[in-house]
Write a structure and sequence with these properties.
The complex is a heterodimer of chains A (about 270) and B (about 325). By secondary structure, chain A is α/β, with parallel strands linked by helices. Chain A is built from ten helices and eleven strands. By secondary structure, chain B is α/β, with parallel strands linked by helices. In chain B, a hairpin with a 2-residue loop joins strand 10 and strand 11. In chain B, helix 5 runs parallel beside helix 6 and helix 5 runs antiparallel to helix 7. The relative contact order of chain B is 0.13. The mean pLDDT of chain B is about 95. Classes of the chains: A alpha/beta (about 270), B alpha/beta (about 325). The interface between A and B is medium-sized, with 19 and 22 residues.
Amino acid sequence: MDLGDHVCWRYGDATEFRACVQDYLADGLASGERVCYVGMSEPAVLAADLEGMAGIGEALRSGAAMMISIGQAYPVGAVADPAAQVKTYAAMTEEALSAGFTGLRAAVEATSLVEAPEQRDAFARYEHLIDQYMVGKPFTALCGYDEHRLGADAIAELACMHPATNEHSDSVRFRLYASSRPDCAAALTGELDIATAEAFRRALEHADLQPLGDGIVLDATGVEFMDHRSMLELGDYAHTRGTTLVLYNGGYPLGRLAQLLDMTSLRVEQPR
Amino acid sequence: MNNDTSTVPEHGFDHPAFFYRSADDYLNQLVPFVAEGLRRRQSVCVAVPEPNLRLLRGALDAAADQVHMVDMTEAGRNPGRIIAGVLSAFADSHPDERVRIIGEPVWPGRTAAEYPACVQHEALINTAFAGRDLTIVCPYDAARLDERVLADAYATHPVLWDDGEYRASPSFAPACVHARYNQPLTNAGGEPTFLVTTADDVAKARRFAAEEATRLGLSENRCMDMELIATELTTNSLRYTDEGCELRIRRDGGHVVCDVRDTGELVDPLAGRRPAVSGAPSGRGLLLVHELADLVRTHTGPHGTAIQTYLRLDGR
């Protein structure tokens, strides 16, 4: 996993998560980025979490490192406004660039923002939107989730919206995230079957993919397996949006499945 | 010999078994049947094994171009896909007209494993096309097929067409013959068994199936089909039973067989054999399995269902 990506980090031990945050933010400082650490605690307590991290003292003094208590960035207990949150980070990224940094890197302990199902729905949508923003802008983020406070299914629901995660592939069997291909609405990877059916439907809802010219194009080159119901789900998704869905094919024979199912609102193509 | 095909009904569903004893017999009856259909501007499909296909094509000469020709040894190798993939596919593509189909699913050389599926297919045609406006003639090689096969044809066809005569079958009983060929399916014993009880097991089950099939010599492409077959069958078991299923992969002669057993009963004998209906996902998994497989055998009852899916080792 590349820690420069948009990473979902499931943790069971706070000390282990702090160590992970330190590594992640230290990489950012070394790359000339402004870093911020967002957590439930007051800024001073957050700063204490980073004690021992190389260069953190100087970074805090110079403004290269910022500690943000979660209430300043997110509405605690409330359902997040996904678009507004993206605007907040976009503004912070622009500020960092104006101040001469190469970009912005955030480590966020986000557990308290996703404990209720409706919070999770909104946050999953935000995760997709911020992921799209990250494709084109120098902003990266590590999203930490406490496995003791969130169930495995809740974390999996969020992890599948990230391009990278420390979750085992048995827990997060597929991922739907922003694609770096300009003609693709998103990238889809992993395996899709009965075990992922509900999560896949919800992920598609959270992503709310929009057609770009020639329908909704999905980079599916990373798909390793798809059962017929998952393909029908994609077909229905396109159909209800009045468009077609194009899957860019990789090693798995999606074209054969589409042909056998005689799909009308979905077709499989080689990546352009 | 009487080759007057004017006795062929022109209304409703007509499903005669046609008994032939020579190539001349075959052509003397079936060429006029095709010609009469074309004269009436009906669409005609000939789905027969390749030697007979060649024979008819030659005899029809230029008229063959107006006939949809299908090699049944390919399209109908798995009898379970003939209704959806051959017969309905043709009939449904001509929704506003009466069509004529020659469908020959049973021929000398059908294996003992294939034959029960052939008979069940013939029996199910009666239900699948009840009320439709078409003729499906099923030729039987009376000179080379044994008496038991001909007796089964009597039971699966309401009408017999023999020596130019068109008459009601004295022993038409498709449900009985379908039940008679609902025979227990066995394994050799000792095969590794994979138990599927939760949705999370399905991915492991398909990996097990692919690994076993690879070990038994199945090609890479067909192993991908095996993964899909194992997934769809175990998924059905999880959806329609409480206990999940057992999956075994074994070799049987020139085939690799995927054996899935659960405690449910397949109450709809046409499940997986009807053409897909847009917006109705139910039944699509089994339909897909029939399309991918070289043979699907089923045994079902109140105590459970076993489905054995055969993939040829020399298949692509």
